[in-house]
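User: You have something folded?
Assistant:
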Amino acid sequence: MDKPNGQDYDESASSRRGIETREALYRAAAELIAELGWGSVTTRAVADRAGVPHGAVGYHFQGRESLLREAAVRALEDLLALPVVLASAATSLTDLLRGTLEWYASGGLHQSTVALLMESLREADRDERLREPLAKMLGEYRDELTKLIERDQARGALREDVSAEGLAMVISATIDGIVAHARIDPDLDLAAGGWVILGLLNKP
């Protein structure tokens, strides 16, 4: 296909530019959600941060909510893949909690993606299209956690009289709660909370 001026039209170059623009908008939107909060992000601010014309948002996305939703899900896929990998690779629940706490202690708690997760979880309560992918990602983590707990129970390291699936849900929700409290109160002792969980579950 030719341009009106007779120059060959490079469709691959145009496609690359489109992909680059979308990626820039995704990154900018995720950053701004973490910095400002979901409700304060505007499409103009996203375009400015991405360094693209404001009209690019309307060209690539159906609107503000579509952009923010897609940006959050893409960023959180990377963030929430980490605990899934940790859970699948851990040799025990103790090993997993130690790795998680070390990640928080090394600055993980203050990463912008953690703020993005907190904002997205709040928004998901109002937006079903955001809630569904987040529920899937969190469910994958609980599934791996359940398998880890079952292995610990089988070797006698954890109490066998509790549901592994139920325990995975409680531990996951407890860790999320501890993180939320720690972001509000930086002096909170995360390690103390984490080890209390094990103290309640380990066999005497």
